[in-house]
Amino acid sequence: MTVLSEDQWRARQAAHRERVAEWTRPHRERQHEHRKHPVLDFLFTYYSFRPARLERWQPEVGVVLAGGAEFLDRRGFTTTPDGVALDPAAFTDKRRSTAEFVLGLLSATAARKPRLGCFGLHEWAMVYRTQPADIRHSGWPLRLGHAGTDEVVDSMQVSCTHYDAFRFFTPPARPLNTLQPERADQVRLEQPGCLHANMDLFKWSYKLDPFVPAELVADCFELAVRVRELDMRASPYDLRELGYQPVPIETPEGRADYARRQREFADEAAVLRQRLIGTCRDVLTWSRQPV
After folding, report:
1. Which one of 25, 48, 149, 287 is CB 3.0 to 4.6 Å from 91, fit for a cystine?
2. Which pTM does this prediction carry?
């Protein structure tokens, strides 16, 4: 067991809260003012980890917090002779099943080579041949208009490997995809070049809350923010009013730019994926130890 003094863990706690406040504070302000944000809201709506949860700090498993009685108000913590620590008894069979699934999914994804030829067409396929009123971000114009957007989809190969992106394709777009992924295909198909698979590292980190250290959750969240920005810059929407310059994947130059950025994110995500894999293994081993 590693024991952190109260000064040590409070410093980490404060640093974590200040770090994530860069995103949680503006999100709360937008909510208060009833303003939607087509890029950043996704991080708090599609993903189910609310701002208050993101702001909460917790240590690694096997760490004791001296003077940490306030953590006993949260699920998953218990007293020890030296302070407060995460409780192996709170790691239920359901949590174990989740950790084993996440470990299997991330390990399978990490073993594959990145595929960089999708060019973000999933966002285009979500508005393909649809009515203006049915577009998800209907308050924002399409850069090329409806007809131009459809032409881009018709002129390129759609090759989305991620089920949770594919399931939002419009009905006319679904047959155009080279794959027809189902939920059951997730472990078999996910690959490390996929923007959504890399954003989802945030989801897998918080699915095991509080047994993943807050700093790792924040690292995954920060990557998800930047990946989401590329995702929407390469989308058919014109978001220049918000400061997002387009990555025009309808041009050769835009596709080359997208693939370069996709590769950079794949490299960053590979490091976080390995950290999450290690955390899953550590948690599964820790939870089996006698109390």
Report:
1. 287
2. 0.95
Dihedral angle sign, alpha carbons of residues 230, 243, 239, 139: positive
Radius of gyration of the chain (CA): 21
Strands 77-80 and 63-65: unpaired
| CB half-sphere exposure, 289, CA atoms < 13 A | 13
Could you tell me which residues come within 8 angstroms of residue 175 by beta carbon, excluding any fewer than 6 positions away?
none
Which residues, 6 or more positions from 102, have their beta carbon under 8 angstroms from its beta carbon?
A: 204, 207, 208, 276, 280
- Cβ atoms of 170 and 240 closer than 8 Å: no
d(CA 174, CA 153): 11
Single-letter amino acid code for the residue at 133: A
For each of the chain's 291 residues, which pLDDT tens digit applies?
A: 899 999 999 999 999 999 999 999 999 999 999 999 999 999 999 999 999 999 999 999 999 999 999 999 999 999 999 999 999 999 999 999 999 999 999 999 999 999 999 999 999 999 999 877 678 888 899 999 999 999 999 999 999 999 999 999 999 999 999 999 999 999 999 999 999 999 999 999 999 999 999 999 999 999 999 999 999 999 999 999 999 999 999 999 999 999 999 999 999 999 999 999 999 999 999 998 755
